[in-house]
Specification:
single chain; alpha+beta; Immunoglobulin-like; 3 domains; 10 strands
Length: about 270
C-alpha cells in the first residue's frame, strides 16, 4: 500500500509506501526543497470532495499542475534519499571488514608464532629428559636408598647403561660409638679389639673399612692394619645387605701383635674410593 504526502514547505506531493514509513518512523525528506517532515502528519487526500457533485471539465491546456509528474519526482527524490542513507551504512561495512581482517591477521600471526615455538618446546622437553636421566644415573644409589619403590626401575635403567646400584656409603652417617683394646690374659702377644659400629642413616649403608693404628708409649705408630667387612663381620652375615638404618653392629677382633707391645691405638672408619 502507498499513500500521498505533501511537503509543508514547498507543497510538493509524492507517493510513499508503508515499508518506507515504517523504516524511518514516518520521517521523509522532500526531493525538491530537501525539507524533512513527518509524512503521516501531512498525508494529502487527492480524492474529490463529497460536496462537489457536478462534474468538472478541465481544459487540456489548463495550467492545472500535473500531480502524477510531481509524485514521480518526489518518489525519485525519496529513492535518492534512501540511497544516500544506504551508502552511509555501507561506509561502516568496510570498517567492520577491516576490523575482521585485522582480527584474522592477528589470529594467523599467533598461529604462526605458536608453530614456530613448538621446536623450542620439544628441545626443552628433550633437554629436561636428558637432565633427569643424568640425575638418575649419578644419584642412583641415593635414590634407590631413599625411594625403595624406584629401585626396580633404577635397576632396569642401570641394566641398559651397564652400571650397578650399590649401597650408600656416607661416612658422615656412620660412626664408631665405642671401642676398646685389651690384652688377652691367656696369650701374651694377643690383644682383643672391641668396637660398636652405628649407622645413623634411615636406610641401609655399606659396611665401611676399619683402620687400626697401634702406638707406642710416645704415641708413635708401631703398626697399622686395615680391616674390610669380610674381616670383622660375623659368620653368616651377608655383606651385600649392609648395615640396617639406625642400627648398630658389635665387632670383636683378636690380633696377634707379636713383639709390638703397643700402649695405645687409634681406630678409624672409611670407605675406599
Amino acid at each position: 500500500m502507498s499513500t500521498v504526502t505533501q511537503c509543508p514547505t514547498c507543497s510538493t506531493r509524492f507517493r510513499v509506501t508503508q515499508d518506507q514509513l515504517d523504516a524511518y518512523h514516518g520521517m521523509v525528506r522532500c526531493g525538491r526543497c530537501e525539507a524533512v517532515f513527518n509524512a503521516i502528519e501531512h498525508v494529502y487526500d487527492d480524492g474529490p470532495s463529497p460536496q462537489l457533485d457536478l462534474p468538472i471539465m478541465l481544459d487540456e491546456a489548463s495550467d492545472q499542475p500535473d500531480l502524477t509528474s510531481e509524485i514521480a519526482e518526489a518518489e525519485a527524490a525519496l529513492m535518492a534519499a534512501e540511497s544516500f542513507e544506504l551508502s552511509a551504512a555501507d561506509q561502516e561495512a568496510p570498517d567492520q571488514e577491516a576490523d575482521a581482517s585485522a582480527d584474522e591477521e592477528e589470529f594467523l600471526a599467533a598461529a604462526q608464532k605458536k608453530r614456530a615455538g613448538w621446536p623450542w618446546a620439544l628441545a626443552s622437553t628433550l633437554l629436561l629428559l636428558v637432565l633427569l636421566a643424568q640425575g638418575a644415573y649419578f644419584f642412583r644409589v641415593e635414590l634407590a636408598a631413599r625411594l625403595p619403590g624406584l629401585k626396580p626401575a633404577l635397576v632396569s635403567y642401570c641394566g641398559l647403561l651397564n652400571c650397578q646400584i650399590t649401597l650408600p656409603s656416607d661416612a658422615d652417617l656412620m660412626s664408631i660409638d665405642s671401642s676398646d683394646l685389651e690384652a688377652d690374659p691367656d696369650h701374651v702377644s694377643v690383644i682383643t679389639l672391641t668396637a660398636t659400629l652405628r649407622n645413623h642413616a634411615p636406610y641401609s649403608q655399606a659396611y665401611p673399612n676399619l683402620e687400626l693404628t697401634l702406638n707406642d708409649t710416645n704415641d708413635k705408630p708401631v703398626g697399622r692394619r686395615t680391616f674390610t667387612p669380610a674381616d670383622y663381620l660375623p659368620k653368616g652375615a651377608d655383606e651385600k645387605l649392609g648395615l640396617t638404618g639406625r642400627r648398630e653392629l658389635n665387632i670383636e677382633l683378636h690380633l696377634d701383635t707379636a713383639d709390638l707391645k703397643p700402649s695405645g691405638y687409634r681406630l678409624l672408619l672409611f670407605y675406599p674410593k
